Amino acid sequence: MNWILNMPILDTHLLSVLTFLPLVAVLILLFVKNEDFIRAITLITMVLVFIISIALVLGFDSSTHMMQFVEKGEWITALNINYHMGVDGISVLFILLTALIGWVCVLASWRAIDKRVKEFMICLLVMQTAMTGVFCSLDFFLFYIFWEVMLIPMYLIIGVWGGPRRVYAAVKFFLYTLAGSILMLVGVIALYFAGGETFDIQKLMAIDYSFGFQVFVFILFFLAFAIKVPMFPFHTWLPDAHVQAPTAGSIILAGVLLKMGTYGFLRFSLPMFPDASQYFAWPIIVISLIGIIYGAFLALSQEDMKKLIAYSSVSHMGFITMGIFLFNTDGLEGAILQMFNHGITTGALFLCVGLIYERTHSRELSTYGWAARRTPGYAVFLFIFVLASLGFPGTNGFIGEILILFGAYAQYKMYVFYILIGVVLGAAYILNMFKRVAFGEDPHHPNNEIKVWDIGFRETISLTAFLIFVLWIGFQPMPFLEIMHESVVHLISQVGVDPETGRAVLEAVVENVNAIDAVDATAIEAVVDVAGEVTP
User: Fold this and answer.
1) Domain encompassing residue 449
2) Of 312, 305, 461, 474, nearest to 396 (Cα)?
3) Is residue 326 domain-resident?
4) pLDDT digits over 35-67, tens only?
5) Per the structure, how many domains does the chain have?
6) Is residue 220 part of a domain?
7) Is the CB of residue 125 less than 8 Å from the CB of residue 20?
8) Does a structural domain hold residue 302?
9) What's the pLDDT tens digit per position in 416-444?
10) How far apart are CA 340 and CA 361, in angstroms?
11) How far is residue 197 CA from its own chain's centroid?
């Protein structure tokens, strides 16, 4: 892949090509009418983006935490806004994930989308540009543009090509995420003036803000990112969006969009507001634990396959937010790896739901029970992704969850019990789903008369792409952990925490007691007392 990096344009503008190549395809599609050509052009573009992303990962130097493939140029000089892009060991993995999901979504929509094909493919391409841009941006103004651009095509994907209640789901999604975006905009403006009138993310990270200012902006950012994750209790938009969205929309939502929230915590909240992050860590961890168990119980009670997987995302994302705010290497690396894993596994499960829905036009578990007999190839793929979702050893889900458990045990031993409850419930709802889909059919059920067919070549390619990463990370996770390790260690040092034990959390919180009022001081002291009891 080195020859790709040595190409004249890619040598100096690799990230720009990755980000804006889909927009070039959009311009081409404007002049194409044949729907098969439209699909082919979109697929070729997405595959090219994926190939370039592989070259990006292979050319990435994992021995340093510094930003790489950096591009910077003046843009709006009056406001000190620059076109500034770069990646580190955290963001580079999500660019790869975004590129993988891009072409899978095109294949998943190949026959499922038969109306307004051009408009749908344009939405996918614009989404690809916006999502990649979010992970590459090193200027807050540029980041915010990409962040907002994502809303429009996803709103259209749900509202135009979704299910019977698509308009309601699309509006709900848009209003929730727009509310969070407005709060984040207020925080960005506050940072701009507090940081010396600059939007440069790296410069803003280097400034030592007062504790009161950190708390104020942290709360604004937290609400924006918590809605995006979504964390309990901001999760109510997610099931509606997933259920009503077409298959490609659900894959993008689960695979990439939910990661924007947790990525925001990693990129902005922790390094820019270290004291506030430590101050709010304990309640965020408690909320995450509630989300883990609450989401699992909701998933356990669902009859709709899509809604079940949607609620499982609430539970799985609780693991990730908890790992982030453990402030130790195991917790953070487990959280980042699990972000990647969740995109692979849950994206694959939504693809499986979409494939079977194309055949039966039903997502109700009660209408199945015959998949192992009538579609054995499909059942095998579904079974492997089910194992990955419950964290079975040898799959990608196992290593991420075990690292978070290690991190939690080192920091908060008393909460491991509640995490394990979530793990058990997760196994219960996902295995129950597979059993009801694959086995135990009623021989007298009317759906036995429905003609179904097993997965074809195009569908096998999409599922195999996800399967490769499930097994690769399951058996060889170290290449992925090595890519992020230096960036994680640097991130923990920015928070001011011992990367192994996190004991400096207590000292950092105590140092800020005098900077806030008596009520907040009492709250901090209570957190310190609790953390002191559970920290080894």
Assistant:
1) 275-536
2) 474
3) yes
4) 899 999 999 999 999 999 999 999 999 889 899
5) 1
6) no
7) no
8) yes
9) 888 888 889 999 999 999 998 888 766 55
10) 30
11) 31
